[in-house]
Write a structure and sequence with these properties.
Protein name: Probable queuosine precursor transporter
Number of domains: 1
Structural class: mainly alpha
Strand content: under 5%
Membrane topology: Multi-pass membrane protein
Number of strands: 2
Radius of gyration: 19 Å
Family: Belongs to the vitamin uptake transporter (VUT/ECF) (TC 2.A.88) family. Q precursor transporter subfamily.
Largest sheet: 2 strands, antiparallel
Oligomer: single chain
Organism: Hoylesella loescheii DSM 19665 = JCM 12249 = ATCC 15930
Function: Involved in the import of queuosine (Q) precursors, required for Q precursor salvage.
């Protein structure tokens, strides 16, 4: 473990912390359906796209291997949080506690949402990272904006196709699900485009600060090689 490539920097650690916080927050916020006019959405839209932006930044700067570590770290922390919430929800409340219904509305639904979220997150995030990595190699490191948008479209599409039927079937009217999925992809991609100028500046700063710009030549893209960084 003396090789510099097998270490992580302070900036990578901070990206990882923010990534995990976004995933945990999204997991709770997804339990609420919100509406903007006639468009039905979930509350997770507020924060979840940030995780894809971080994924793009990490993959662009440090490469697929560290993005893989980031994704599995986020998965583990999210699973830990949801497990604690489910345990707390199962423990009987104190005699003076009057908010069981509200607490259960969030954490009682969490196991189903968590399973859908975990599966969708892993699939979508790895699709996002894989496309970012491959497009960077094929373009010689050019066109970051295009790579970020295209990878988000594919990643978010996979995420939505898996998450919404598993998490919200029977909760949301069936005829609303396709529109909910479509609007999630459109709005999350729009979110990425709107903040793209900031993302570009962050990526440039991190590359200069870290003095690294990784190209994934001869990388094993297996999602299971977690500690190969």
């Amino acid at each position: 473990m003396n090789n510099k490539d097998n270490k992580v920097s302070v900036l990578f650690m901070l990206f990882s912390i923010l990534f995990c916080v976004c995933l945990i927050a999204a997991n709770v916020l997804e339990t609420k359906q919100i509406a903007f006019g006639s468009i039905s959405l979930t509350g997770g839209l507020i924060v979840f796209p940030v995780s894809y932006i971080i994924n793009d930044c990490v993959c662009e700067v440090w490469g697929y291997k560290k993005a893989r570590l980031l994704i599995w770290t986020g998965f583990a922390m999210n699973f830990f949080f949801v497990s604690l919430g489910a345990i707390c929800d199962a423990i009987p409340g104190a005699p003076y506690w009057t908010n069981d219904e509200g607490f259960h509305a969030v954490f009682g639904l969490a196991p189903r949402i968590a399973f859908a979220s975990f599966l969708a997150f892993v699939c979508g995030s790895f699709v996002n990272a894989y496309i970012m990595s491959k497009m960077k190699l094929s373009s010689g490191g050019k066109n970051f904006s295009l790579r970020a948008v295209v990878s988000t479209i594919f990643g978010e599409s996979v995420d939505s196709i898996i998450f919404f039927p598993l998490a919200l079937w029977g909760v949301v009217p069936t005829e609303e699900l396709p529109w909910l999925m479509l609007w999630q992809v459109i709005l999350k991609t729009a979110y990425e485009i709107v903040v793209l100028p900031l993302t570009i500046r962050v990526v440039r700063y991190v590359k200069r600060h870290e003095q690294v710009d990784t190209y994934d030549n001869d990388v094993n893209y297996s999602i299971w090689r977690v500690f190969s960084i």
